[in-house]
């Protein structure tokens, strides 16, 4: 019987530090964690080593595995059952390297190395995979362009870097239009400035969650590279970062990405719910041979699939209909109106769609052979929460930040509360 390889991962982010335990064996991949500690604890503490070990002890309780012995990390290839790990791998944490005893003995990888490694693996599985890491200091975009892996950084981030959004040529109305309630510009700018000062804080109300989602939409819109969607066929987008993973609604995460990127055609959205992405990249970089052992090639959640209807049309305008074949005798039909978004719960299954739309509409990225007899046909794999039919047009028909606009936003967002 093959013995599993056990790894301890510690990812030092600028906002949060995460601890994971991973076991890899033939055809199995078992992830435990994370234990999450705000990184400012290390900065404020006179003894950051004790904070670090406290995180290790929390992981011991979670995994029922002994990791520390007399304050020393147990690393042994011939470990007893439930004791020690084969290897400890750290990512990030450059500013703590001289303050944590255990850190001295472990070779660390920087964040860019880890994300590039993860991106390279995902695009080797599917060249249309795109990776977005919404970090505290910057939003990073990794994607393939003309057989070249590109990485683009925004000038602002979701935590300490949020204040730089205010220094961009941004329009407050472009953020306020995504809120289902009225808000003054000064209140919005105070929210962004406070997020920069206290990046570890989490939204504690539906109002704060909505504001954070509105800000993230604008960050994605401003940061998106011009050639990010060069190939519109079967796009896969993986998002990572605390602003995504801490959102309690996976479907709302999908809507934020859809709105911020204005995705066209058929797209699958994946979420790094546990914020394991950089550790996943570190594992691949240091032990590429272990990837072949995993039955789960993409250890992230496929939350939603979206189908965007492109074209210019008016809100409320009849656009045609969509036939949905779940494999049953009866085919479902949805009559599509311009300016609306339709969410269909259908957890993790393959379905057939046929679009019978007016001449001014199309679904980009569908193979030409499927565009016959006035209809468009495609097969999609729905995500955990289902799939979206987006009939708001491209460019997106965005409401203004007024009474009617707020009613529209509330209607769109309420369709996703499940």
List the main descriptive attributes of the protein structure presented here:
418 residues, alpha+beta, Nucleotidyltransferase, domain 5, 8-stranded mixed β-sheet, 5-stranded mixed β-sheet, 10 helices, 20 strands, globular
Secondary-structure blueprint of this entry?
Blueprint (H helix, E strand, L loop, with lengths): L4 E8 L3 E10 L2 E11 L1 H5 L3 H16 L4 E2 L2 E2 L13 E6 L15 E2 L1 H15 L3 E6 L4 E7 L2 E6 L18 H5 L8 H13 L8 H18 L11 E6 L1 H4 L4 H12 L3 E7 L5 H10 L14 E8 L9 E8 L6 E6 L2 E5 L5 E8 L13 E2 L2 E7 L5 E5 L11 H12 L4
Parallel strand pairs: 1-6, 6-7, 8-11, 11-12, 13-20
Antiparallel strand pairs: 1-2, 2-3, 4-5, 8-9, 9-10, 12-13, 14-15, 14-17, 16-20, 17-19, 18-19
Would you count the extended β strands for me? 20
Report the average pLDDT across residues: 85
Low-confidence stretches: none
* Proportion in β-strands: 25-35%
Ends distance? 44 Å
Anisotropy-based shape: globular
Provide a quick synopsis of the model.
This protein has 418 residues and is an alpha+beta fold. It has helices spanning 40-44, 48-63, 111-125, 172-176, 185-197, 206-223, 242-245, 250-261, 277-286, 403-414, and strands spanning 5-12, 16-25, 28-38, 68-69, 72-73, 87-92, 108-109, 129-134, 139-145, 148-153, 235-240, 265-271, 301-308, 318-325, 332-337, 340-344, 350-357, 371-372, 375-381, 387-391.
């Amino acid at each position: 019987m093959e013995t599993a390889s056990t790894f301890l991962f510690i990812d030092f982010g600028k906002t949060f530090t995460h601890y994971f335990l991973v076991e890899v064996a033939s055809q199995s991949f078992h992830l435990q964690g994370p234990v999450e500690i705000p990184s400012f604890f290390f900065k404020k503490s006179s003894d950051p080593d004790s904070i670090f070990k406290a995180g290790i002890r929390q992981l011991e309780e979670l995994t029922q595995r002994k990791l520390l012995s007399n304050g020393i990390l147990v690393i042994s290839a011939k470990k007893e059952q439930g004791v020690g790990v084969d290897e400890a791998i750290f990512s990030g944490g450059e500013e703590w390297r001289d303050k944590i005893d255990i850190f001295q003995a472990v070779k660390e990888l920087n964040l860019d190395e880890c994300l590039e490694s993860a991106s390279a693996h995902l695009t080797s599985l599917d060249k249309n995979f795109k990776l977005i890491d919404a970090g505290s200091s910057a939003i990073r975009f990794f994607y393939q362009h003309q057989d070249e892996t590109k990485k683009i950084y925004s000038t602002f981030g979701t935590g300490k870097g949020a204040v730089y959004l205010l220094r961009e040529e941004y329009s407050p109305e472009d953020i306020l239009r995504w809120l289902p309630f009225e808000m003054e510009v000064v209140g919005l700018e105070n929210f962004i400035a406070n997020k920069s000062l206290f990046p570890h804080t989490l939204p504690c109300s539906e109002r704060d969650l909505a504001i954070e989602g509105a800000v993230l939409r604008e960050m994605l819109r401003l940061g998106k590279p011009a050639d990010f969607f060069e190939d519109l066929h079967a796009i896969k987008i993986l998002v990572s970062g605390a602003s995504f993973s801490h959102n309690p609604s996976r479907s709302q995460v999908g809507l934020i990405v859809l709105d911020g990127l204005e995705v066209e055609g058929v797209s699958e959205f994946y979420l790094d719910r546990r914020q394991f992405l950089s550790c996943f990249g570190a594992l691949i970089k240091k032990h590429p041979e272990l990837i072949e052992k995993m039955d789960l090639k993409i250890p992230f959640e496929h939350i939603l699939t979206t189908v965007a209807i492109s074209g210019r049309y008016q809100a409320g305008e009849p656009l045609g209909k969509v036939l949905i074949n779940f494999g049953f005798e009866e085919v479902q039909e949805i009559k599509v109106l311009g300016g609306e978004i339709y969410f269909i719960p259908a957890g993790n299954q393959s379905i057939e769609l046929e679009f019978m739309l007016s001449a001014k509409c199309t679904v980009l990225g569908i193979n030409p052979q499927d565009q016959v007899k006035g209809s468009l046909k495609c097969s999609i794999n729905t995500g955990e929460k289902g799939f979206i039919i987006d009939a708001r047009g491209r460019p997106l028909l965005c409401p203004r930040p007024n009474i009617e606009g707020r009613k529209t936003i509330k209607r769109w967002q309420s369709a996703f509360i499940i």
